[in-house]
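wait is this the right file?? whatever heres the structure
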């Protein structure tokens, strides 16, 4: 049934028109403003009194003296009058009288100027009230996101249970519940992360700057985001937990609740009594709930690294060994040595580390559960063993040995007896052979290897090429050092001959590096890397880029081959097509494109990953006109070929905006993922999936706000003698990949007894790898805690933890040949 439409009465319509057209006198407006300000001042003064918040009858009764004296605001007068009508007890306090409701005011004709003043007053008061309410109570947003899910997570509604999925947004107040054998990770509106145990129920809400998690039952592990305003609360009904940035666990059950703190500080309120808990402490709301070791309390959680982190930090807080500029062992090594790893004597370092660990454990008793007798004994054994050895310890492998051996100077007698007394060696069935050769101790678990190495001491290693390479590292100051002769002494083999990995402290920072050395000039793909050069292409990349790869090559033709190969399906197909073009049409697209390029490139993920990845390509171009003409010929040839096969054609276009010509190239009807826009600027081609991203890149260069000026980027550049890079790899993915990892974990098939989970990506830190091309080597360097992680591996008995950085395909070839086979 359609409701009737009643037009506005003529009188009301005329009044509205008169109000709209009337211009109030300035004096009247000023008088109205003064009255409104006076009312707001009175309201503010009243609100600042201790009884500003009315909770119960006592608060109303406290207002009665001001009510009688006429000192209350109109709003509070109305509240008191209404309450007196409803509450008999308060009426008795108010001298037994029932306060009569005020008589309605007589409606009288008001001129339009007064109407304007009244309307302004209403708007100001209403706006001020709304602002105050929002400020005090907050908008009820309280949003959360299901970051990852293992099993089933339900939304509880009046209609029943509704399954949720990873990546789903959740409004405020929604009650969530994990099913049996299920757990979920939620990301709250402020960035805090809540891991929810199976059979747990909770909801979230906000109030002003505060955010509250109401835990009905079960357990949650909370990694609270540090905030400068407001708090994160966890409310279990019988206690209230307040935090500003810490890691803690809360369990709510039938007998009561328990709060355990892993990191930072929390405040727990129960029955108006507040307790402050620090790392390692816990409390319960019931006397029948006894304490439980934190390591067991959080055994259900996925992320238990918050307990291990203090132990790992202890190694980084210890003073690392000083750099070594000479070696007493190097001259005496076996002549056929092809593997050499050198570490300083760890006695002082391990002593410092154990001291720091002792402080950590003393400050946090719960760490004692993690620091078991085996770990403590391992450090004590290593430190004690170091007392028998000199300042340097080398691990050496040579041709003819079955296994690596350890070589060190003897500091005092008794090392072999010391080893024989170690219970852990006897129980494991490992027997070390120790040979003393002229003051050098050669030892290891393989007797034949030890005897073979001892028989080759002082056999002429200084005459070998590997010796000269190692000496060069010592002259520059050595920390943890590893060298490998990849040819095992066969000096006639071309290609990468040596590999070196090193970790040392330089300029107050730990620096890790890896080097590929060649016999003579670099060959293969490694030969394409140019000398370190200024990278103007980085001027177009923003400081917020998630990932950047910038590099300079000697021959741009190789890059053209690979780019055309992507369009053609393979590099071989592209080369075949280009050869046919040369024969049929007399021009060479590959050579024309390569001739217009300068050899410098930058590829970046400079924006959002979804729905269309915000990639960015910047290439040095010396001849934009030739480049564009060549590309048009390539598109024409490609479309002519695809017309025969029925494959999609490539479409192009261009437009001029703000003096710049923007070009477009895309696969027909393929959508935004197969579309690119580009322009030419200052000798560079700048391309991106949208014209807006290209324009933004130009603006970044003009403003001088590129990643090259970012402190976050510059702080990661390793301290060394180079000013420029041959290549640079930078990533600042952070939590951008965390949802993808969570999704991958949810989709991975589970195998019984296996850890199928991908590592957490929540705490990824920015990293930068700097690559330098030199005549006979390529070196990759990065700042980072390679030293601490390596020593931790050594303590755990894992000698594979020696430092190393990934090199990808920069390994060269075994034969010399042209980099481009088509020439």
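ok assuming it is, sequence goes like this
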């Amino acid at each position: 049934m359609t409701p009737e439409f009643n037009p506005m009465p003529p009188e009301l319509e005329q009044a509205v028109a008169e109000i709209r057209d009337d211009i109030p006198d300035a004096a009247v407006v000023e008088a109205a403003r003064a009255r409104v300000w006076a009312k707001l001042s009175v309201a503010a003064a009243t609100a600042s009194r201790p009884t500003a918040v009315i909770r119960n009858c006592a608060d109303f009764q406290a207002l009665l003296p001001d009510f009688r004296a006429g000192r209350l605001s109109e709003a509070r007068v109305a509240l008191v009058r209404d309450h007196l009508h409803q509450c008999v007890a308060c009426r008795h306090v108010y001298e037994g009288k029932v306060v009569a409701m005020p008589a309605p005011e007589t409606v009288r004709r008001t001129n339009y100027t007064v109407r304007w003043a009244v309307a302004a007053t209403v708007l100001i008061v209403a706006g001020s009230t709304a602002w105050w309410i929002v400020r005090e109570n907050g908008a009820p947003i309280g949003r959360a996101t299901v970051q990852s899910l293992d099993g089933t997570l339900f939304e509880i509604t009046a209609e029943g249970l509704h399954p949720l999925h990873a990546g789903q947004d959740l409004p405020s107040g929604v009650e969530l519940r994990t099913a049996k054998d299920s757990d979920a990770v939620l990301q709250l509106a402020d960035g805090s992360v809540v891991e929810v145990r199976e059979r747990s129920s909770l909801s979230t809400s906000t109030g002003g700057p505060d955010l509250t998690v109401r835990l009905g039952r079960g357990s949650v592990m909370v990694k609270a985001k540090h905030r400068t305003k407001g708090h994160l609360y966890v409310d279990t009904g019988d206690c209230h937990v307040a935090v500003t940035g810490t890691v803690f666990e809360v369990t709510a059950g039938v007998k009561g609740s328990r709060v355990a703190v892993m990191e930072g500080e929390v405040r727990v309120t129960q029955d108006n009594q507040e307790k402050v808990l620090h790392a390692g402490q816990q409390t319960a709301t019931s006397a029948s709930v006894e304490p439980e070791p934190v390591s067991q309390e959080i055994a259900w959680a996925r992320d238990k690294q918050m307990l291990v982190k203090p132990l790992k930090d202890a190694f980084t807080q210890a003073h690392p060994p000083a750099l070594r500029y000479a070696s007493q062992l190097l001259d005496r090594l076996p002549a056929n040595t092809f593997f050499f790893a050198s570490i300083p004597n760890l006695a002082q370092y391990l002593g410092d580390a154990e001291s720091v660990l002792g402080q950590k454990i003393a400050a946090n008793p719960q760490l004692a559960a993690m620091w078991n007798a085996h770990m403590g004994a391992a450090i004590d054994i290593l430190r004690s063993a170091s007392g028998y050895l000199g300042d340097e310890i080398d691990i050496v492998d040579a041709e003819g040995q079955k296994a690596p051996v350890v070589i060190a100077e003897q500091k005092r007698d008794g090392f072999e007896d010391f080893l024989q007394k170690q219970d852990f060696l006897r129980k494991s069935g490992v027997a070390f052979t120790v040979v003393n050769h002229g003051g050098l101790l050669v030892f290891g678990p393989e007797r034949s290897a030890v005897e073979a190495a001892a028989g080759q001491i002082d056999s002429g290693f200084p005459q070998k090429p590997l010796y000269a390479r190692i000496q060069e590292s010592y002259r520059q100051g050595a920390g943890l050092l590893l060298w490998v002769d990849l040819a095992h002494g066969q000096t006639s083999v071309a290609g990468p001959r040596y590999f070196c990995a090193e970790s040392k402290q330089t300029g107050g920072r730990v620096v890790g590096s890896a080097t590929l050395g060649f016999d003579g000039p670099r060959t293969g793909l490694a030969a394409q890397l140019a000398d370190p050069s200024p990278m103007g292409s980085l001027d177009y990349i923003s400081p917020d880029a998630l990932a950047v790869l910038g590099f300079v090559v000697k021959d741009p033709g190789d890059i053209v081959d690979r780019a055309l190969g992507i369009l053609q399906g393979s590099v071989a197909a592209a080369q075949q097509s280009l050869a046919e073009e040369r024969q049929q049409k007399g021009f060479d697209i590959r050579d024309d494109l390569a001739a217009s390029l300068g050899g410098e490139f930058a590829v970046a993920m400079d924006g959002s990953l979804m729905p269309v990845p915000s990639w960015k390509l910047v290439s040095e171009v010396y001849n934009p006109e030739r480049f564009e003409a060549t590309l048009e010929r390539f598109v024409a040839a490609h479309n002519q070929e695809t017309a025969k096969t029925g494959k999609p054609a490539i479409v192009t276009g261009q437009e001029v905006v703000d003096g710049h010509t923007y070009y477009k190239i895309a696969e027909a009807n393929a959508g935004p993922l197969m579309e690119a826009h580009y322009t030419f600027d200052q000798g560079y081609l700048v391309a991106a999936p949208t014209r807006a991203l290209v324009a933004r890149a130009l603006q970044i260069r003009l403003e001088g706000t590129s990643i090259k000026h970012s402190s976050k980027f510059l702080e990661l550049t390793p301290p060394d003698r180079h000013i420029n890079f041959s290549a640079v790899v930078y990533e600042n993915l952070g939590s951008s990949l965390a949802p993808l990892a969570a999704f991958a974990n949810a989709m991975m098939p589970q195998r019984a007894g296996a850890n199928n989970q991908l590592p957490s990506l929540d705490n990824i830190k920015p990293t930068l790898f700097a690559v330098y091309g030199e005549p006979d080597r390529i070196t990759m360097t990065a700042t980072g805690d390679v030293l601490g992680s390596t020593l931790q591996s050594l303590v755990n008995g894992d000698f594979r933890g020696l430092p190393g950085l990934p090199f990808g395909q920069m390994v060269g070839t075994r034969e010399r040949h042209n980099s481009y086979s088509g020439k």
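Residues 112-137 form the longest helix (26 residues). so i think its the right one actually
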